[in-house]
Design a protein that fits this description.
about 160 residues; about 65% helix; mainly alpha
C-alpha cells in the first residue's frame, strides 16, 4: 500500500492548480490552461485510485496463495508421516523418506515459538541450531539433579571453613 502513502498530486502542483482555478482562470497558454490542468489532475487521481484497487487485489491474491501454501504444507506433512509408517518394512523407501525434510508450518512455528518465528523452518535445522540464527539452546526446566546438588553442597562447607 505504498502508493496510498504518497499524495496523488504534489503540493506545488496543487498550488499551481489553485492559481489556475482562481487568479489565472482567464489566462490561456498555447497548450496549457486551467481546464487542461484540472483534467490532467483528475486523470491522475483516477489512475491513483485504480492503482489502489489493483494493489488491494494483489494483496488479496497473496493472502490466498499463502493460505493454499499452508494447506499444501500441512497435507504434505501428514502424507510424509503416513508414508513413513507405510515404509517401516521397506528400508530403501524409509531412507528416501527420511531424506525429505519438510519445513514446519509458519502458523505452528509462531504458536510454539512466539511472535519471533516468522518463516517456516525445517525440523532438523531448528533442532541443531544450524539455521544460521545463532539461537541459544532452550533453558533447562525443573529442579537440578541430585548429583549437581551434591557437588554444590560439598563445595559450600569447604569454602565456609576456609573463611573461618
Amino acid at each position: 500500500m505504498f502508493s496510498l502513502m504518497m499524495p496523488t498530486i504534489p503540493a506545488p502542483v496543487d498550488q499551481l492548480l489553485a492559481l489556475f482555478s482562481s487568479r489565472l482562470a482567464d489566462v490561456r497558454f498555447p497548450d496549457v490552461d486551467g481546464a487542461s490542468l484540472a483534467r490532467l489532475a483528475e486523470q491522475t487521481h483516477e489512475a491513483r485510485m485504480a492503482l489502489a484497487t489493483a494493489e488491494a487485489m494483489v494483496e488479496t491474491a497473496r493472502s490466498a496463495v499463502r493460505e493454499h501454501q499452508e494447506e499444501l504444507l500441512r497435507t504434505a506433512q501428514r502424507a510424509l508421516a503416513y508414508a513413513r509408517v507405510y515404509a517401516s518394512a521397506d528400508d530403501a523407501l524409509a531412507r528416501e523418506l527420511d531424506a525429505i525434510a519438510l519445513p514446519r508450518s509458519v502458523r505452528r512455528a509462531r504458536a510454539e515459538g512466539g511472535e519471533q518465528e516468522t518463516r517456516a523452518t525445517t525440523p532438523s535445522a531448528r533442532a541443531d541450531g544450524a539455521d544460521g540464527a545463532g539461537t541459544a539452546p532452550p533453558k533447562r526446566r525443573g529442579r537440578p539433579r541430585k548429583s549437581d546438588t551434591a557437588a554444590l553442597s560439598l563445595d559450600l562447607p569447604a569454602t565456609s571453613s576456609a573463611a573461618e
